[in-house]
Amino acid sequence: MIETRRLFIRKFELKDFKQLYILDSNPLVHKYLYNSPMKSYVEAKEYIQAQLTQHKNHGVGRLAVLDKKNNFIGWAGLKFNNSMINNKTNFYDLGYRLDPNQWGRGIATEASIAILNYYKNFKNICGIASVENLASNKVLIKSGLVFVNKFIDPINGKFDNWYEFN
Description:
This protein has 166 residues and is of the alpha+beta class. 28% of the residues lie in helices and 31% in strands.
């Protein structure tokens, strides 16, 4: 478990599926993603299992983010990506999603910095954010990533910004 001033960050547990579903079925959370919110508890359970598999196979995965009262408020973490994106493959993608009630409080930045510190020996850490998502772009910059370029997302055809952690 990673602990910060306001957060507990830990591996997902299967019991997190209901809270994950509530978060990831919210269309507002998906506004700058692919507009494909989760549709079922089964999908949430599959996502959790995929993260646990990521941890087993690559030593990283998305992590549950809880407040100090142990309430699930979102997720953050690294994910190994072997798909070709922006002419790069085999990198670790820093990502995060939070309950909209937590937005604007610096939680994504706090979690991201803690995760980057925890995995400080990892190389090829990148971040991707929709050009339109100003808040997410700020999180990546405040977390220590550096803007590299703008590219077209192959899935939705929209512009995303690419960041790298040095």
